[in-house]
Amino acid sequence: MKFDTPATTNPIDQLKVVGQPVDRIDGRLKTTGQAPYAYEHNDAVRDHAYGYVVGAAIAKGRITGMDLRAARAAPGVLAVVTAENAGALGKGRMNTARLLAGPEVDHYHQAVAVVVAETFEQARDAAQMVQVSYAGAEGAFDLAAARDLAEKVDQSASATGDFEGAFATAPVQLDATYTTPDQSHAMMEPHASIAAWDGDRLVVWTSNQMIEWGAGDLARTLNMPREKVRLISPFIGGGFGGKLFLRTDAVMAALGSRAARRPVKVALQRPLMINNTTHRPATIQRIRIGTGRDGRIVAIGHESWSGDQPGGGPETAVDQTRLLYTGANRLTQLRLAVLDLPEGNAMRAPGEAPGLMALEIAMDEMAEKLGMDPVEFRVINDTQVDPNDTSRPFSRRQLVECLRTGAEQFGWSRRSARPGQAREGSWLLGMGVAAAFRNNLVMTSGARVRLDGRGEVTVETDMTDIGTGSYTIIAQTAAEMMGVTIDKVTVRLGDSSFPASAGSGGQWGANSSTAGVYAACVKLRNAVARKLGFNSADAVFEDGQVRAGNRSVTLAEAAGGEGMVAEDAIEFGELSKRFQQSTFGAHFVEVGVDAATGEVRIRRMLAVCAAGRILNPKTARSQVIGAMTMGVGGALMEELAVDTRRGFFVNHDLAAYEVPVHADIPHQEVIFLDEVDPMSSPMKAKGVGELGLCGVAAAIANAIYNATGVRVRDYPITLDKHLDRLPELA
Amino acid sequence: MKPFTYERATSPAEAAAAAARRPGAKFIAGGTNLLDLMKLQIETPAHLIDVNGLALDKLEPTPEGGLRIGALVRNTDLAADQRVRRDYGVLSRALLAGASGQLRNKATTAGNLLQRTRCPYFYDTNQPCNKRQPGSGCSALGGFSRQLAVVGHSEACIATNPSDMAVALRALDAVVETVKPDGTTRGIPIAEFHRLPGDTPHIETALEPGEFITAVTLPPPAGGRHVYRKVRDRASYAFALVSVAAVVQRDGTGRVALGGVAHRPWRVEAAEAEVPRGARAAMAAILANARPTHENAFKVTLAERALHAVLAEARG
Ligand SMILES: Cc1cc2nc3c(=O)[nH]c(=O)nc-3n(C[C@H](O)[C@H](O)[C@H](O)COP(=O)(O)OP(=O)(O)OC[C@H]3O[C@@H](n4cnc5c(N)ncnc54)[C@H](O)[C@@H]3O)c2cc1C
Ligand code: SF4
């Protein structure tokens, strides 16, 4: 189905099932421990062995020798695979660095070997006997030091009007630089895979957000035909972008299995995850804003520097600045430095998350310079059209409504405009606001829908559920379309033998994948109507029956003994070019800052989101509160500590890379504005999973400033960054 | 993890003797620290002596009016004990500020005293570390040192002791009771129990090879207000940037021990004369010899400000 004209009324609009706060249909499996995660497919795979990955001990250089004798002779060892005996390997399209080092080493903890043994303990013990000698090479590990060598990234550059001229003459100006650190996805489930060969065919049970990308890149890496690779990933214990791509667990399991002639399972040990896989790259961001005395933006410029492995890409931290606020004169530019740290790549809301961390502090600073309320300053700079091309409207943009609703609900009027005024005992109190913005991406997505002789519906698509609720919203979509209750729908996901879907990434998954299911259901409805001799436009699917005029047939009868199957995909046309499709929100936060120690503690948080139709308010709320929690991490504690001499992230476990714990998150609220966006898809939905993160950290930063009067522009805002500027103690 | 042999100890003295007989042997109590380190091959004992069956899990009054804490009393039970809460509140509060409920259920008094540093380089066997591998160098010097020591450290090691409990015990003048492999017993004052790193950061305590901890004894209650303040980057489940254990009397005198600043709980008795004059004077004396790195210089300010808050709480 091609989606190239705005959606009109369709069966989804009944909202009998879609739009309802339905419990997760996979909830029972998960809470009872029966949902098999990647490492747990023990029923499917018999007689498996265990692989343990050895990571490079240097950041850059070459391997000069490997002594595998002790490892090979260790008890239970079946095979040791290194670049020497792995055979020729290709590289995945989505990978920057190779997934098996040798002889060159591109980054710290890049895999150099996998040791396969009968038991996990034997594999781990033998892995520690692998002796590798290296010749280290000089590398670049320090973004600040490499900043001047960074090159402009062409496709990122945009300029409208005369930014420099307009900024120079603007009556009120801000020119400030902000930094965001490298961050780790730090999801609970590690990267894990079980590989089993059947002749020249390979099946891999894995934990991957994008089945089609993963299967393609695994085939490319192993130099084998794509159709001989099957990926299965029904449940994923979190990804946040860390599992968008093929990673070494799948490759090492496949190579280890080939060498050991046994199925092999590999999970990356936690200390390897941080330097072996991808992370969100650090940024340095310069923001310039010029306004008139009335607060209207006349010039807005945003430049960002980040680094990556040779051949890698930038963190696109300036994207939102092209679209979020009005202003006739605009400039955005990314610059990319070559760094020899581990590979940078997407983490939840890539681009906008770090971009808004900076931009939305800048907006707060500007409001203060103008003596304006930060909500009002944002409101007067709203735009309903793409400011770079005013003939392109936003499909639906309710930023102002989000800000106004949030201010009202949060009690924003109680905020003191002057910082450092509110106090409760030993706590300095402050409130902060930030706008949330994330583009709405759409991706081709396919599904197969089967109606059986009992009137039950089965949906198959390679869409993944990374804890987000995909199973549930897909079941809701199919139930709504076919006129059955949700318990009559079975959803099967995450298998590359199912139709290729949008996958889970970039918050495109919910809207695109349900739209794909919608398309397949439309096809199935038409087939049912045709079979019954109904005019498909008149056929009503309701209560397990199909009706037209005064004729009514149960779905079971309609399907007959053989059942009926339809497969289709949603393909998106030009609407996303003609209309700017984005999601909006506003975050409000109240913090307390300990007047003595500078410790920051969140008191309450509110997110107001306008993101198209909310397919399931319960799972959507979970996405947003989870994202807000991640925003607290980004604001207050998350930072991969770079050892700029040795070239690696030092705090490579969950004791040292801190993420929020329950005690950090006392009170969260989420409001979804009523919205449908007929430009986005037949579902009229957009994404929320990343929107919820965008702007959170800046709202916290602004609240801290409001509490203390000390402006910190370097994340995370740990107490040492403002301690020596806090008021003297009496 | 290296393969190891295993036995269950039958008595404290026998545990010590067994440890002396088997070079490379280690006691295992709750295992919450030792097992993690074994998985990473930072600890590689060839033999484990499980001491959990020993009846050392009781709290008993001492004839002098103090309290004797068995080596195997779990952190949860110690923190919840009525006598501890009433008379040694700083200890209860320090324990509850540490780790998580699940870990405290397993963690023992002796194991907590002997937990090893959280210096991140110590945990990465690719990196030089004098504590893990004597003579290999110290990666933290000139590296990521935000968490590490500001006082009492050496060129060989700038690690900190991560225990919260030990800081409170230092303020309470506890005594560590042991039995040696030859069967003799002794009491080691807590002030002498943990060592500064010097040239031998791998030797962390006064314990001799095989020496086994049987109990920790607290002297009679010191009275006063007991405060434990742990400052950290998140609200719970994190090691201290700085912590302050204080016992403050009505007249403003008091004892102060610091965590998170040194290779051992940091207390300078001579400096405590300054406590009545306030946090600034007291901390200037307590951290007089501080030599922080660029990354952890804030700890000196933080310690002073935390003490200020602690003294205010004690007065309040
Ligand atoms: C995630 C995490 C977070 C933590 N957070 C904190 C925190 O915030 N604050 C804090 O203070 N601690 C914290 N800890 C550390 C925790 O307190 C210790 O792991 C625990 O106290 C160790 O006790 P155990 O009985 O498990 O020791 P074990 O691991 O069994 O033993 C530790 C050491 O003591 C030796 N040993 C044990 N008993 C004896 C004995 N009777 N005589 C001689 N030697 C003995 C062992 O041989 C071993 O070397 C944390 C730990 C973890 C894993
Ligand atoms: S500070 Fe101590 S523990 Fe850390 S690397 Fe140096 S020697 Fe090792």
UniProtKB/TrEMBL annotation, chain A:
SUPFAM superfamilies: CO dehydrogenase molybdoprotein N-domain-like, Molybdenum cofactor-binding domain. Signal peptide: none annotated. SMART domains: Ald_Xan_dh_C. Residues 32-138 form the Aldehyde oxidase/xanthine dehydrogenase a/b hammerhead domain. It comes from the Bacteria. This is Xanthine dehydrogenase family protein molybdopterin-binding subunit. The lineage of its organism: Bacteria, Pseudomonadati, Pseudomonadota, Alphaproteobacteria, Acetobacterales.
